[in-house]
């Protein structure tokens, strides 16, 4: 079965600030964003979702209070923040340890005075500390971190661990930013990969590490101070025990699910946060870090004996596209890559189908599922209508589409290696709202 994407130039509605509630169904929009709260940018998370989408949904569909939202791919916490701003309750989860830390910080009330005093003591002690411990080990650590930087990070890590427990989440966020900044990655790099055009990093001292940490703590405190003047009730946010969007265990229900699922074949979040995972001891070792991939929807870490088999989903369009990738109809990648990418696509949609079935079981009758996803992904030269196929899978789980619109993606540049001949870029996010029958 052939599938082709019609390349038409849509007519865009140009919007300043918030998305209007009377937006026509099927619109193509371009947003000029207003300056957001600092809390949105706190913490490392590639390709953050924008708050305008959950804000629009909650103002249009979530006006009857109490209103309970589920965010199954919490990421950097955008939906959590918007739910709290709209006085809605929100359940949330994420498989990624760093995302969970970020979301906990954004849904916790802190004392800026206590944090400043705590940080001052940490810095003073760190400057007088002589011998640094060595507790963190992972592959190529010495290539990516200078000896003095490692010492500075180890010293900070030790003192943060001794800090009052109530302050530690925010201090760890600042520490995570310090880890990334003081590594030998060039500014703007997303993945730790050696490149031909690698720029030399200046020599850094322990003191440089301490100064960066102080700066990141100050920024984090500014962000939470501003946020705490806006957010009336942090107790409305609740992390649920499950860390897997394919297994939403528990006896609870929600009025809406508002999320941006992982993009297929896009960003390797485990690799991107490799340094933070190890330095914050969120994983024990390299093996434990690699085990995180088993919890990731859309993972590219698939055993060879699995990806040598061409998977069948039962969706005729999707299965034909998977076959085109597997056989290299559009692009013959290096050895084994066509088979691997075909299996990645297969597993992504199988996992998302499981997620939709789980989600539907927790949605109240008449509840909503709102998701934002890249409309089309190009894999080994084959264009996959991701949004369309996900909508069909959600409908097979008992939901029906009631509204959709398309958002022009303006900032699509990611500093990572990519073969544009067979990967391509995503031009639009499609926002789809589905409803469960009464």
UniProtKB/TrEMBL annotation:
**InterPro entries the record matches:** MeTrfase_CN4_CS, SAM-dependent_MTases_sf
The answer to keyword Transferase applying to this record is yes
Report a single Gene Ontology molecular function.
methyltransferase activity
Catalytic activity annotated for this protein?
a 2'-deoxycytidine in DNA + S-adenosyl-L-methionine = an N(4)-methyl-2'-deoxycytidine in DNA + S-adenosyl-L-homocysteine + H(+)
Question: Mind listing the GO biological process terms from this record?
Answer: methylation
- Which SUPFAM superfamilies does this entry report, sorted A to Z? S-adenosyl-L-methionine-dependent methyltransferases
Task: Enumerate the UniProt keywords alphabetically.
Answer: Methyltransferase, Restriction system, S-adenosyl-L-methionine, Transferase
Which E.C. number(s) belong to this protein?
2.1.1.113
To which protein family does this belong? Belongs to the N(4)/N(6)-methyltransferase family. N(4) subfamily.
Protein name (record) = site-specific DNA-methyltransferase (cytosine-N(4)-specific)
Organism from which the protein derives: Laspinema palackyanum D2a
Q: What is the lineage of its organism?
A: Bacteria, Bacillati, Cyanobacteriota, Cyanophyceae, Oscillatoriophycideae
């Amino acid at each position: 079965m052939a599938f082709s994407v019609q390349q038409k130039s849509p007519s865009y509605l140009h919007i300043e600030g918030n998305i209007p509630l009377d937006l026509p169904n099927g619109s193509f929009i371009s947003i000029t964003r207003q300056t957001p709260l600092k809390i949105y940018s706190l913490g490392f998370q590639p390709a953050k979702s924008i708050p305008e989408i959950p804000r629009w949904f909650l103002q249009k569909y979530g006006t009857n209070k109490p209103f309970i939202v589920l965010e199954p791919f919490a990421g950097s916490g955008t939906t959590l923040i918007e739910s709290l701003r709209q006085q809605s309750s929100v359940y949330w989860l994420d498989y990624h340890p760093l995302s969970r830390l970020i979301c906990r910080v954004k849904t916790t009330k802190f004392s800026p005075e206590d944090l400043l005093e705590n940080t001052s003591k940490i810095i003073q002690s760190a400057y007088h500390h002589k011998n640094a411990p060595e507790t963190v080990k992972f592959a190529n650590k010495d290539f990516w971190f200078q000896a003095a930087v490692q010492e500075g990070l180890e010293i900070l890590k030790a003192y943060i661990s001794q800090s009052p427990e109530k302050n530690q989440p925010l201090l760890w966020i600042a520490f995570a930013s310090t880890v990334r900044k003081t590594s030998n990655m060039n500014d703007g790099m997303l993945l730790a990969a050696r490149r031909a055009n690698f720029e030399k990093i200046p020599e850094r001292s322990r003191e440089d590490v301490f100064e960066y940490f102080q700066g990141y703590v100050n920024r984090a405190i500014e962000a939470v101070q501003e946020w705490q003047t806006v957010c009336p009730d942090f107790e409305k946010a609740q992390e649920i025990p499950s860390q897997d969007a394919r297994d939403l265990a528990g006896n609870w229900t929600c009025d809406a699910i508002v999320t941006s699922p992982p993009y297929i074949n896009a960003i390797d979040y485990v690799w991107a946060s490799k340094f933070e995972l190890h330095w914050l001891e969120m994983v024990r070792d390299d093996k434990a870090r690699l085990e995180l991939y088993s919890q990731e929807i859309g993972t590219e870490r698939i055993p060879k004996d699995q990806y040598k088999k061409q998977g069948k989903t039962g969706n005729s369009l999707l299965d034909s596209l998977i076959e085109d990738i597997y056989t290299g109809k559009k692009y013959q990648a290096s050895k084994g890559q066509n088979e691997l990418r075909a299996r990645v696509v297969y597993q992504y949609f199988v996992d998302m189908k499981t997620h939709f079935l789980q989600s539907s079981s927790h949605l109240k009758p008449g509840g909503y599922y709102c998701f934002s996803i890249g409309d089309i992904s190009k894999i080994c030269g084959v264009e996959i209508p991701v949004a369309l196929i996900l909508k069909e899978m959600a409908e097979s789980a008992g939901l029906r589409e009631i509204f959709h619109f398309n958002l022009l993606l303006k900032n699509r540049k990611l500093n990572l290696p990519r073969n544009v001949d067979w990967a391509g870029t995503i031009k639009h996010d499609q926002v789809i709202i589905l409803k469960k029958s009464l």
